[in-house]
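seq as requested:
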Amino acid sequence: MKSIRLDGKVIVVTGATQGIGEAVAVACAESGAAGVCLGGRDAARGAAVAAQLDAMGCPALFVRGDLAQEADCRALIQSAMTRFGAIDGLVNSAGLTDRGTIEDTQVAQWDKLFAVNVRAPFILTQELARLLRPLGTPAGIVNISSRSSRAGPPFLTAYASSKGALVTLTRNNAHALRKRRIRVNAINVGWTDTPGEHEVRRKEGQAPGWNERVGASLPFGRLLDTGDVSTLVVYLLSDAAEMMTGSIIDFDQNVIGAYGSDVHPPI
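struct tokens:
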């Protein structure tokens, strides 16, 4: 069986200062990565995560930037290549989840979400592909999408639309880069227990313990956690998944499109 490890690989992770991105960065270090480049906006958190990885024996570089800015996206990839001399994987985990319906979403909000959730992964992937062309080396790219990419609730109009676009970008890039062995896959993540989600629920007035209450009603008795997602990401980055590209993985405890025997599916 092929090893699900990242020994000798250098990985770039965006949104690496909290939540899924942070968990992915730590999981990469635990899996033997030769280096991890962390992208994020919070300098203090970035330094803390980098120090944690260094203490684990994995060299880490934090690059502060705003992924809504093209220059910052390109600088992240360039900085990683300058520091480590190679890039074997990219995880596009950074994302905005601002709420808004079709009627109250402002154009500025729409543009902001698309800049971070879609345009940034496009620019980061483009910059990496350009750098790797003369080297002829393979790579794995994982885009963190959402089950909302299929439609999403009414209050996530811009977010759901951006994730739908990210899914299409994933397939397009996977096809375009396949002959260079640059693999591109995406994970449609379901409801996940993250610091960001806790902040959203706090602002909505939900009492502490909401995650346990919601989790108890779900098929597997809990929400997804960041470790669930990071484990799958490591697999997709590893050589064990070297024949897998263009895949969109629904990572949730429900089967999308399936209905109970007592519910008539919509026509």
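Strands lie at 10-13, 35-40, 60-64, 89-92, 139-146, 182-189, 192-193, 224-225, 248-251.
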